[in-house]
């Protein structure tokens, strides 16, 4: 945990680490775009179908775009993005660190006087902190696109009507809540990956166990954090 603390105590990147940061960002964010697009588009379609079917019984179809906007920003997009990133990147980061720990590469770097927290952990943490909120915004947009596709087929609504209804009464806090959650999820998930990877013991078979444990703990922790934030948000509207 001392290495994890070191990454947080000095949260700035030296010039030599920018290349590592961009490589991490490419791996964590850009290469996840197809997966996020498919999942967000399908989720947007499903939410639109369910809400339209249920609210039509109450003659409240006009509220559907607004509800989709709120659900995507405050709940669905942050969690969906976190799940994709945990499955792709937290497991990979934990396995990479575990492999280095078992092979004593981290001990070798330490013996050479290399600051491991800045050399290894800080680029990972920075990439998570930047890319999760960016991908959260992308998820919201893709989810709305899927919802609009459903609505245009069912009700023949044009894009201007859909956008106006979705943004009717929209507040900046809707967006900020999603971005804040994504940033917090990034810190929680990356800290779990660091902890599990840097405390790996055993042989090469331990790498798979570490990756699995990191994913399980990250998913559980992110879900718990989201529930706590939502509860606090509802208690203090």
Structural overview:
This protein is mostly helical. The chain has one domain (about 1-235). The chain contains 9 helices and no strands. The chain has helices at about 1-10, 20-30, 35-55, 65-100, 105-110, 115-155, 160-165, 170-200, 205-235. It is elongated, with a radius of gyration of 20 Å.
The termini sit apart by: 36 Å
Helix content: over 70%
Poorly predicted segments: none
Total of DSSP H or I helical runs spanning 4+ residues: 9
Radius of gyration: 20 Å
Secondary structural class: mainly alpha
Number of strands: 0
> What count of structural domains?
1
The main β sheet shows up as: none
* Shape category: elongated
**What's the rounded overall pLDDT mean?**
83
Which percent band covers the strand fraction? under 5%
Order of helices and strands: HHHHHHHHH
